[in-house]
Write a structure and sequence with these properties.
Layout: E1 4-5, E2 8-9, H1 17-27, H2 43-59, H3 63-84, E3 92-94, H4 95-99, H5 103-116, H6 124-135, E4 143-146, E5 153-159, E6 162-165
Antiparallel strand pairs: 1-2, 3-6, 4-5, 5-6
Helix pairs in contact: 5-6
C-alpha cells in the first residue's frame, strides 16, 4: 500500500495504530474502526493479528518496521524498473527483441502489452506462461490469460517469432 495512489491519500500510513488511537483519545475523538480490519476471514487480518505478533516475539521486535522499509525499497525499485521497461505498441511483439531484455524488464513489457490487449487479474503464473513463449520456447501451444470479452480468455500465440493475443 502506498501513501498516495490516486484517488486515495493515506497521510497516516506510517503512524502505528496505537499512536493514532492514543491521539484520538487525547483529543476526545472516537475513531471509526473498519470492520474488515478485524475480520479473521481476511488473510491480511490474520497476518496482522496472529503472525506478526509471533514474529515480533520470536525475533525480538522491529519486524513491522523492517517490513515497511523493505516494502518502500521494493516500491522504488519497481518504479525504476517500470520506467526502464520498453513500452509496447501495437498488436504484436517481436520475440527477438523481448528475449534480449533482462527478465525484470521483459515481464513488465509483457504485462503492459497484455493489459493493452484487455488482460486483467494477471497472476505470476499467467505471466510466466506467456514469458515461456519467449524465454523457454519449445513449440508449446498458446498461453491463456484472463481477459478479452466476457467469459473468455485471451490466447497468446507465438508464430514466426511474433507474439499475438486474441
Amino acid at each position: 500500500m502506498t501513501a498516495w495512489a490516486a484517488p486515495y491519500g493515506r497521510p497516516l500510513l506510517g503512524v502505528r495504530r496505537a499512536e493514532t488511537r492514543a491521539a484520538c483519545a487525547e483529543l476526545g475523538l472516537a475513531p471509526w474502526e473498519d470492520p474488515h480490519n478485524v475480520d479473521p476471514r481476511f488473510t491480511r487480518v490474520r497476518l496482522r493479528t496472529e503472525v506478526l505478533p509471533l514474529l515480533e516475539e520470536v525475533l525480538g521486535g522491529g519486524v513491522a518496521e523492517s517490513l515497511a522499509r523493505t516494502a518502500a525499497s521494493l516500491r522504488t525499485d519497481n518504479e525504476a524498473l517500470d520506467a526502464l521497461a520498453p513500452a509496447p505498441s501495437g498488436p504484436e511483439l517481436a520475440v527477438e527483441e523481448l528475449a534480449e531484455l533482462p527478465a525484470a524488464l521483459r515481464l513488465r513489457t509483457l504485462r503492459s502489452w497484455l493489459a493493452e490487449r484487455g488482460a486483467r487479474a494477471l497472476t505470476a503464473k499467467h505471466l510466466a506462461a506467456v514469458d515461456a513463449l519467449v524465454s523457454d520456447w519449445h513449440g508449446q501451444g498458446p498461453a491463456a490469460v484472463p481477459g478479452g470479452s466476457a467469459g473468455r480468455r485471451l490466447q497468446v500465440h507465438r508464430t514466426g517469432g511474433i507474439l499475438r493475443a486474441w
